[in-house]
Specification:
The complex is a heterotrimer of chains A (about 500), B (about 500) and C (about 100). Chain A has about 500 residues and is an alpha+beta fold. In chain A, helix 3 links the parallel strand 13 and strand 14. Chain A is about 40% helix and about 20% strand. In chain A, strands 1, 2, 7, 8, 11, 12, 13, 14 and 15 form a 9-stranded mixed β-sheet that branches. In chain A, strands 6-5-16 form a 3-stranded antiparallel β-sheet, with no helix packed on it. Chain A has 3 domains: about 300 residues, no CATH class; about 110 residues, no CATH class; about 55 residues, Arc Repressor Mutant, subunit A (Orthogonal Bundle). Chain A is elongated and about 95 Å long. In chain B, strand 7, helix 9 and strand 8 form a beta-alpha-beta unit. In chain B, helix 2 runs antiparallel to helix 3, helix 10 crosses helix 12 and helix 10 packs across helix 13. In chain C, strand 2 and strand 3 form a beta hairpin. In chain C, helix 1 crosses helix 2. A two-stranded antiparallel sheet of chain C has the order 2-3. Chain C has about 100 residues and is α+β, with helices and mostly antiparallel strands. Classes of the chains: A alpha+beta (about 500), B alpha/beta (about 500), C alpha+beta (about 100). Strand 3 of chain A pairs parallel with strand 1 of chain C.
Chain lengths: ~500, ~500, ~100
Amino acid sequence: MARAQTSKLIRGGTGDWEVVIGMEVHAQVASRSKLFSGSATAFGGEPNSHVSLVDAAMPGMLPVINEACVAQAVRTGLGLKAEIHLRSIFDRKNYFYPDLPQGYQISQYKHPIVGEGEVEIEVEGETKTVGIERLHLEQDAGKSIHDQHPDYSYVDLNRSGVALMEIVSKPDLRSAKEAQAYVTKLRTILRYLGTSDGDMEKGNLRADVNVSVRKPGEPLGTRCEIKNVNSIRFIGQAIEVEARRQIDILEDGGKISQETRLFDPGRGETRSMRSKEEAHDYRYFPDPDLLPLELEQGWVDDLAKDLPELPDEKRARFMTDYGLSAYDASVLVAERESADYFEAVATGRDGKTAANWVINELFGRMNKEGRDIEHSPVSAKQLGGLVELISSGVISGKIAKDLFEILWTEGGDPAEIVETRGMKQVTDTGAIEKAVDEIIAANPDKAEQAKLKPNLLGWFVGQVMKSSGGKANPSAVSDILKTKLGIE
Amino acid sequence: MTDLTTLTLTQARDGLRKKDFSATELTEAFLRAIEAGNGSLNAFVLPTPDHALAQAKASDARLAASDPRPLEGIPLGHKDLFCTNGVRTTACSRILGNFVPTYESSVGANLWNAGAVMLGKLNNDEFAMGSSNETSAFGPVVSPWRRKGKDGKLTEAKLVPGGSSGGSSAAVAAGLCLGATATDTGGSIRQPAALTGTVGIKPTYGRCSRWGIVAFASSLDQAGPIAKTVEDAALMLGAMAGYDPKDSTCVDAPVPDYAAQMRQGVKGLRVGVPKEYRVEGMSKEIEALWQQGIAWLKAAGATIHEISLPHTKYALPAYYIVAPAEASSNLARYDGVRYGLRVPGKDIIDMYCETRAAGFGKEVRRRVLIGTYVLSAGYYDAYYLKAQKVRTLIKRDFDEAWNTVDVVLTPTTPSPAFAFGEKTGDPLAMYLEDIFTVTVNMAGLPGMSVPAGLSSEGTPLGLQFIGKPFDEGTLFRAGKVIEDAAGRFNAPDKWWLAGSKGR
Amino acid sequence: MQVDEATVQRIAGLARIKVTPEEAKALQTELSGILNWVEQLDEVDTSAVEPMTRVVPIALPKRKDEVTDGEIPDQVTKNAPQTEDHFFVVPKVIE
């Protein structure tokens, strides 16, 4: 067993405690229709509109599986470097709830479609491999609204029957940050693959977090499950709050009861859900309306061939091909659209410059204005043109910023703009020398002092740049000044 | 004019095409019979005369244009387990209240698309759970058959028509329809057919679609016809069967011309007689009937072989684990939320518990509880898993048998029709009715009951044929031999038409 | 297997069917009888047998990912005991 990392331990009254976290993430499968029925998965809609007779569990209704959902589950498994089970079984999970019209959920219990896999995460510079236990397909339930009336609840089955992938991690996580990094990475992989949009706000990605604590080296403690945490931020908060709650109980000599809890972000605490022990007897059995799902290895191999490059591979490639730092590469690959944008800018051009402009200038401006990469007013082609102009020395870095502003607000072709607005950098050494001579002549005292105070070089560079309207090549200016002022 | 209700389906079909009578006349004859006789029999829970006459009218148009579909104008009864669009469907349970489906079962649609006419919905044991039609929320069905007393006169005791498709078998036997749809999970087509002198066939699992049929036990349920003759049943099954992509367990295989296959005779057919079906305490007359069937088949050119199906006796207990387990899950949707009965409650759980207690009858509740128990934590392996393993062995017994024989012959039931209340004291006594029939559902095979004789009390006895998967043709040709030799059996006195409310 | 009344009530709870104490008594006898009777399956050696996972020898049929159904809120709610604006209305669910 790995030695508990001291930085992640939580200090308690009786010593240090290790937090052990496992996560069950439910991701809505990206598909047009539901897992076992042909109604739409579209978000929203009038109550009970995206609902077929099958979804409403009318008498005599039967399930028929959506082949695309099966493919999405397999592709996700491949993206998690997991074992694909060519034979899996759908089981009924039986319990009563008004948003579960059949009185059972079609899920997978003993024989899921995907087995063990792994996900790599990075937290504060450290890489860690998080084990995946399994992934299975299951139906989502509908929605019940309880707070509209004192005596009634309202049920909408639009979501009932939508395909979900339940991804179960091994209990390998040891801190709130690791858990957050894990879910973030998982979400990125799903979005890269296009198997789920991972939209937590819409509830398309939800996490059940299992938390237990123990003294390092001791056996696993009793865990509690915090259900349906729907943001990365809350995942972190919920873990910290729950770990602290359990530690406090144990330090007071108490015992942790295994239970299901809910995170209340308003109060910053977890609270126990109404006792549901009897609900835990789900009486799983293979769904007799379905047959075992059997996949051909050839079909799986074809899916594997057509997988897009995944974030880890892309990050490694950006580092080797474009010479980017690990940090910059990570930022760029966080979203596939950003990575694709960057690559369009950087292909055939200087990678580092491209990265600098995408990350610092473009992303910075986008964040300020609340835009996403799909709605960037500056296209990759335009930005690429800008980068080229810098690399070939046509414009200086400072002028490039002006150019960027023009592209953002007005649009246009970068080379044309530079040409028509006379933004070209002056690299003609003769012209620069002339400008340098003029400035030195106008400031003889400073010129004298510059030999003793090399910092004055900066002032001179600024003056020459000003006189040239920012167009002079700053390094050329600097070199010429050094020579004329006699600075090394 | 001939009493049209005494025709067979085949004769009626021919008569319509020859324009001996119209579809409207034919339907009206049955509507009159229902009006006169259903009060005493309680076979129909919902006659649909307007609907029937509208369909008959449409059939007349097609017949006039000499463009008849296979069952054009044929009036049928439809078990109330099949969802009918715009027509109340209850599975004969209180819990489905006044449920009116907005959809038609696939099997039903197949029949109406073949030109058949729906006379009404037929009574059955609640949720198809029963062997006597005594558990229906609409009250029991009375068999048109009565026992003969020692003095040769018919006794008054009301006999059961079998179950769960008791309404179907009684209606056909009493001439209230030309044929009836039914379903069979453990014998619910074959046993009622045997008890009423009619022909009933449960096809291979997957032959007919289950879409739109109120589910009892998903891996065992199959739809099939109950009819007056083997040929009638062949015509009906031909229209009912077929692929349905809405049912994942329905097989995409062509539907043969069963009536043509029926005429092929049995020369060289190898008939298996399983020794394990000779059960302890089996009545002498059932044994004699069985021997008679063997003799008839031999005379027609078949060869007889004793076979062993060693796991036969375990089929019934295994069935009473698997079927209730699946039912407990299939019936969870009857919860008062989206359709059917709702009994108010202080909160949702209370509402569920009150609704389901009020809505489910005793037998249904018993089976739902058994089913819940055998799937529950700690018991799944010992009961459900075990039963499913035994099921594999039961099927394997038959797979081995097919190496040496082409069809298996057994009695359909251990005894003839019993009277109301005779078996309701102990659930197990009722369950034993299915002893010869459940093996067939457990193995997914086709099975047919053909009337073969009368008991010493003058009530019908049937013989059962069990076939290879999708070999219904062999059942029809073997059944035809028995029918030709045994003749047809009609209730001697149509007492129910006297109009007295014999309930 | 003998089931006691407490078990009958627990199972009835799982099945969401209210059972009165008198009914539980009767059910206890009936269910015990049935469960005892099915126990004869223990006589069968199933150690080398797989459970029956399919009755038909076909592969699980799959359908294409197209929207072919739904958008029938009137039909879906037509038979409901209580609805409001196409929501199903039920007595309060206590979380």
